[in-house]
Amino acid sequence: MEDKDVAMEDKDVAMEDMYVAMEDKDMAMEDMDVAMEDIVVAMEDIDLATEDKDVAMEDIDVASERKHVTMKDYDFAMDDIRCR
């Protein structure tokens, strides 16, 4: 009878271990879902940063063009001054 009681206790412990393992698996799955959401958000942030970089590059191009126009205007003004 004692062997049967020990076997029943072992079965109960094994069942508890199985339930704990299942809970751990569920928590791991939830953690994985959160991690996937974080990845999606990070990718969206990268896309936004890339768009910001593209806009900044366009702004640099415009500023550079304005600088060239201003330099030409300056050269014309200097020529006018010299001619007078």
What does this structure look like?
Helix content is 98%, strand content 0%. The protein is mostly helical and 84 residues long.
Please sum up the structure shown.
98% of the residues lie in helices and 0% in strands. The chain is mainly α. The chain is rod-shaped and about 125 Å long.
Break the fold down into its secondary structure elements and pairings.
Layout: H1 2-83
How many strand elements?
Answer: 0
Terminal Cα span:
123 Å
Helix-strand sequence: H
Mean pLDDT: 95
Strand content: under 5%
* Total helical elements: 1
Uncertain runs are none
Overall shape: it is rod-shaped
Largest sheet, in brief, is: none
Fraction of residues in helices? over 70%
Structural class of the helix and strand makeup?
A: mainly alpha
Notable characteristics:
98% helix; 84 residues; 1 helix
